[in-house]
Give the backbone structure.
Amino acid sequence: MMFYIKSKSAILGVVLTILKFGGLWCPSEFKGSFRKLYYVYSFMLFLFILGSYMICQSVSLCQIWGNLPLMTNVACVLLTDTVQVIKMANLLFKRNRIQRLIDDVEMVLTMPYGPEERNIITTIEHALQRLTFFFVMLTYFTIGGWAGSAEKGQLPVLAWYPYDTTRYPAYALTYAHQIGSIYMSATLNMSKDMLAVTLISLTGCRLQLVNYELRNFLNDLEPDPETGLLTAAQEATAIDRLRVCVRSHQMALRAAKEIEACFSLPIFAQFSVSLCIICVTAFQLATIDNPMLFVAFLFYLFNMIYQVYIYCYQGNEIVEQSTSLVDAAYASPWHRTSTAVRRRLLFLMMRSRKPVIIKAGGITTVTLQTFMAIVKTSYSLFTLLQDVEDNQAN
């Protein structure tokens, strides 16, 4: 078994390797008993990272029910863990479909492109790496703030345990378990998010490549000086190239539909929970006195907003690239071609007028408009929580 899963996309390779060791991406070479052992390993790791931790948090939430500041404190992490479980289940059940998506992307990335097309792919890959780096920094700064904010004898995250956590060595072991499980679950959560985001981004890349090919598919074909039109042989070449563009466009559309089928539910769950978490985290910031904890929750707030943003930004890029196909086709020197080529080009332009939109849960579009709507709704819920807290205080 290889330690690192090789991929033409650096981000995909890192993400799949992390998921493999996190028990969420069974190596394809594992068969029979090895595959069963891998899933046993997955279950045990789940219990260590999330299972026992979520039970302790749920019991704690029941105990503090009615205390709004403490409830929102526990709810932040518990809601995040709940979405994690949904993402894990989705990844395990749809592993084969996602693998086919990845194989399709790998095939596109290995095609013999020219320098301009390679530059498009490299630019998008570098942009993905920057997005991932910033995501990782935000996440680990948040966890570091939580780890350092715990006062003497207290745990970083409020949770119930069936023993006295204020005495040693129980306190040290519980503290280590909390921080370790948070770091591991956060790393897996980022990997699951970046898997979906990378596939969305590379689908946008495919559409951008179609744009480039469509804009330039006639550039090296010089028309007849007398007629100003292409020769019969050039017409045949132009039609063949246009067929390739149409085929690439159709493959990109199928990839977008398959991404929606594979990730629609977890993205919708993430959006729904992020809406609540942004609200309760902002509420926590208004009530926290501990400076270190304030910084930790501030990073957590930025993290939750950014987590929604990267989905919506990449989804919006697909919309932009799919609609710009009309402009790309019109920008080509179509006036050199015959009616037959123009008719084919016009048909492609008509098809491209309908934007490619990925939906979450079949309801919400993964676009920047949705991102703004989530932030605005979170703020409205935040003001409502503040009113409830003020009424309780009075």
Notes: The chain has one domain: 10-26+34-110+119-219+231-393. Residues 10-26+34-110+119-219+231-393 form one domain.
